[in-house]
Design brief:
With about 350 residues, this protein is an alpha+beta fold. Helices cover about 45% and strands about 15% of the residues. It has eleven helices and 14 strands.
Length: about 350
């Protein structure tokens, strides 16, 4: 009985298996997209469903339903945030697809993933790295994460999920855009930074890579009690009683494992600080904006500074009523966040 429980645990945490959607026809796809009666749209709830004519429209005109975000895009870094026109056919279809994927896939996500997963947060991800005394945290960051996941990789995911070629073609049309600026596109397509579906699809397009890394860490470095967490493009590894040599080995292993898969994907990890960090919990190690202790979390120094600043503002007798109300609101938000960190 104990052996069976161990095998079940190993399968859940250290193996990967593609989930199944089994969408073979347009009828299957429309049933999948329209399973929910309503979908949330910028604070509103809409009942509009996706029809056959909408799929035909998207096949030829999806490009007209989105634009580059003028202030959030960073052309100098090759990052373009796309926003979909509110209420457009692409908007309704993409949000319905994201809701359907959430309903179907989130319960099948391997336990190391925390970003883009229902009922999981960066607080839980950071807490999972708590590892007792003498813990070191390795923080890795994948550069241009969304742009590194190509249309071919998303098509591969849908095919492995049991979708027909026809349906996989429709789904990548819903979720992928050309690289570069919309008005000056480059060759190649990737998932769209800014679309509702992108974080969830990025997880499933890359999950094999990180599950493989976790499996190797447990097999080779089990004596260090390694813990791996993935939050979108941020990767954290905690190690217990590790030597400097072992830390360097694990850094090299992580780079190699994450970057070696070239099947429609090209992930690159930052190799230099500040994106790459190796921190001891004795020196107030931070990951995902939280300070990680032996068995607990605390807000970052930046958050604590904000709390102190707001309290100082409220202590001023000359503060205007408008500014005092704003400061009180900020204080409530910061204190609620501090409590959620302590209890999360």
């Amino acid at each position: 009985m104990a052996h069976s429980r161990l095998l079940a645990y190993m399968r859940k945490h250290y193996t990967h298996k593609h989930p199944k959607l089994n969408l073979r026809t347009e009828k299957d796809l429309l049933h999948f997209l329209n399973a929910r009666k309503t979908v949330k749209l910028k604070g509103k709830t809409v009942r509009r469903q996706v029809a056959t004519k909408d799929l035909s429209y998207l096949d030829k005109n999806s490009r007209s339903d989105w634009n580059d975000h003028p202030s959030e895009s960073k052309p100098e870094n090759g990052k373009y945030v796309r926003y979909i026109k509110q209420g457009s056919t692409l908007d309704i279809s993409n949000r319905r697809l994201n809701a359907a994927l959430k309903q179907t896939l989130d319960k099948k996500v391997p336990s190391i993933f925390y970003g883009s997963v229902s009922k999981k947060s960066h607080i839980q991800a950071s807490r999972a790295l708590c590892n007792g005394k003498s813990t070191v945290i390795i923080s890795l960051d994948v550069t241009r994460f969304f742009e590194s996941v190509s249309l071919a990789r998303i098509f591969r995911f849908f095919r492995k999920a049991g979708c027909s070629t026809e349906i996989a073609d429709i789904l990548v049309e819903l979720t992928c855009v050309p690289l570069g600026a919309k008005e000056h596109p480059q060759s190649g397509f990737s998932i769209a930074r800014g679309f509702p579906t992108s974080p969830r699809l990025a997880l499933w397009a890359t999950f094999e890579i990180f599950v493989k890394l976790n499996r190797i860490l447990q097999k080779r470095y089990g004596h260090l009690s390694p813990k791996l967490v993935v939050f979108v493009d941020d990767v954290g590894i905690s190690l217990k009683n590790s030597t400097p040599e072992e830390i360097e080995e694990i850094k090299a292993l992580s780079f190699e494992t994450i970057e070696s898969d070239k099947n429609g994907i090209h992930l690159v990890v930052h190799k230099e600080a500040p994106k790459l960090k190796v921190q001891s919990i004795d020196q107030n190690a931070e990951h995902l904006g939280l300070v990680i202790g032996k068995n607990s979390l605390s807000p970052s120094f930046e958050t604590r500074h904000k709390i102190g600043y707001v309290k100082a503002q409220l202590s001023k007798q000359t503060l205007s009523t408008e500014n005092r109300d704003r400061a009180r609101k900020n204080k409530r938000g910061l204190m609620n966040y501090k409590r959620s960190v302590s209890n999360g």
